[in-house]
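Entry type: protein chain
Record version: 2
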Amino acid sequence: MRAAMTTAAGIAKYLTPLPSTASLFSYHLALHVKPGARRGSGFAAVPQRAVDDCVALCVSAPPVEGRANEGLAAFLEESLQQQLRAMQVAIGAHRGNQQREEALRRYLEGTSFTAIMEESKSKAQGSSNNPTDHTSTMKANKKKASKKKGEDPSPTSAGGQNPPPVDFATLTALPLFRATSGAAADGAAPKVSVTLVKGQTSRTKVVLLEVPLPQELLVPLIEKMAKEDV
């Protein structure tokens, strides 16, 4: 995959978290699809002003004419699944929390992962120091959700509340990483689903991503995909 944005703000700007479960996270991702990638398909290396409200994505010609949307979804599913599989094996090979944390840092080295975790830590400290502010934010989100019935306030989780800050213990305990090295090597591939929800006949599209990763891991994973294939 020839991919992505160079900062967390880059990709996170176009990613909208949706109500999710403990093991499967859902997002809307805005894309601007362009034909004619130099080496197959992949995200544009840098954001482009012409498509500032979307992630630019270069797509090679689909294998069957007239089925570009199916090819786009299949490409994204396969690329994300391969990356998830590699990360699953790398982290699942370790048992202790400290070892898994170090393995996660190494695997996502060179991305904005460390900065994301520092920001999450600061938010957690702020919430504990200002419980009144946290309650006010929750009420405000619920009020917005009631006004926009049928729409997904961004970025929120189920119930219209802000997603809670995530720490390393939470990340390394994800179901994706529960397997040992042997099980990770032989088990089923991580579940990934990509569905086009808007823009069937337009280059500007919105896809529904369902992956076993919270945003704190999905954003740097896409950045890693970019760096590996530039």
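Comment: Residues 8-157+165-229 form one domain.
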